[in-house]
Amino acid sequence: MNSNYSIAIHGGAGTLIRGKMTPEKEKAYRSTLKLALEEGFSILKKKGSALDAVEKAVIIMEDSPLFNAGKGSVFTANGTHEMDAAIMEGKNLKAGAVSLITGIKNPISLARIVLEKSPHVLLAGSGALEFAKLNGFKLENEDYFYDEFRYRQWQELKDSDHFQLDHSDKKDSKFGTVGAVACDVEGNVAAATSTGGMTNKNWGRIGDTPLIGVGNYANNETCAVSCTGSGEYFIRGVIAYDLSCLMEYKGLSLQNAAEEVIHKRLLKINGDGGLIAVDTKGNIAMPFNTEGMYRGMQDSTGKKMIAIYEE
User: Fold this and answer.
1) Residue-by-residue DSSP string for 125-141
2) Which residue numbers are catalytic?
3) pLDDT digits over 95-111, tens only?
């Protein structure tokens, strides 16, 4: 048994400048983060699995229009929504992921069904939706995903070659991926990540989120990781697995490995973003190289925090 169990969540990183956000909006973000954190933590407290805890935390953020995942997903160049998600557990290295899916309220739950009920790891597009229907998922109408703010964002970029990571005001651009990592009483770790991708994205672009070892990874030998940031750079740096490798082969601590990949390796190729990670002793790391990252953590020693900016 593991005496220290813990959970960490993120709601995206980026240029989150203090004072740019209205107090109401900040309050809304903090209260949704708090809800996701508490719901995930209560599962761990009842000796539930890390996998259940991370899925639950991500569902709550997918159900909020505040985050670029699920309900709050951004518009593509064609005015549709294409969502990606991945979930993984560290005990048997089982993983499930979906990409380029539309109409699914909680992509993370579909990824979980891929993990549990299919012989595959990653399903995409119409095939993934076929699999969803076979497993009883109902498709939501387009208007479920409609958000006025996201729509205006898209209108500003529409018919141009520009695409964008979430916020319209360049001084306030953020990467709205959501994610959770947890370590349960059994010492098992798990990670879950979900995103709506880039505003005005073209050609079926896929970021780091649904790629195992890139935006999401879990291994009981090392840690569980969920990333958020400019996906192309995370893909090129194989960031989540790189963190795990630094622990496994170099013997680095969770914190040191996390800082190495975010503050050195990612920056070296001009990538920006952040990650949350947990090891099998319940330690948590949440580094980011942007102005801010929506994040929170709670553990069984009584430590709890929710933050947006550099503390």
Assistant:
1) HHHHHHHHHHTTPPPPP
2) 177
3) 999 999 999 999 999 99
